[in-house]
């Protein structure tokens, strides 16, 4: 299947996954899980597809399929890809969101915590970079808040 078509299909599945009954069946009753497991690999250089898969995993993770996500090794694959693609901000941020979603369920949380030592340094590093990028906006926001307060006191 052409790479662009794969991306489009994953986007469609991502949008369908907002419906609970569809979301719960997407991974359990299809071969989609095999496809995702095969493609969410460090060796896969198709970052657009990886990004769509990561976004999809964040959306579909639920109590009914968290154990399946954990059992097939998708948590480990996601963490490995997160570390490998450090320079890709989109993959890094979507991976963090998917990891956040994984924390809600015991089996995915346990699998994620097993990877914690590997990823914690990069998460801290990433938060420092984001903080440094936001610092220039701190002063203008303070001025807006001060202006707002002075207008309210009048």
UniProtKB/TrEMBL annotation:
Pfam family, one: KAP
Molecular function in Gene Ontology: kinesin binding
Domain of life: Eukaryota
GO terms classed as biological process: cilium organization; microtubule-based movement
A cellular component term, taken from the record's GO annotations: ciliary transition zone
Signal peptide residue numbers: none
SUPFAM superfamilies (alphabetical): ARM repeat (SSF48371)
The protein's name: Uncharacterized protein
Organism (species): Adiantum capillus-veneris
């Amino acid at each position: 299947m052409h790479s662009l078509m794969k991306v489009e299909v994953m986007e469609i599945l991502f949008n369908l996954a907002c419906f609970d009954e569809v979301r719960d069946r997407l991974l359990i009753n299809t071969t989609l899980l095999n496809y995702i497991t095969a493609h969410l690999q460090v060796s896969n250089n198709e970052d657009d597809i990886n990004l769509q898969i990561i976004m999809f995993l964040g959306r579909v993770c639920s109590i009914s399929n968290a154990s399946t996500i954990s059992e097939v090794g998708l948590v480990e694959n996601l963490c490995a890809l997160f570390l490998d693609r450090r320079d890709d901000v989109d993959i890094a941020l979507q991976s963090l969101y998917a990891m956040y979603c994984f924390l809600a369920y015991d089996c995915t949380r346990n699998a994620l915590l097993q990877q914690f030592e590997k990823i914690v340094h990069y998460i801290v590093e990433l938060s420092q970079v984001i903080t440094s990028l936001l610092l220039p906006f701190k002063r203008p926001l303070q001025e807006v808040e001060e202006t707002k307060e002075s207008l309210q006191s009048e």
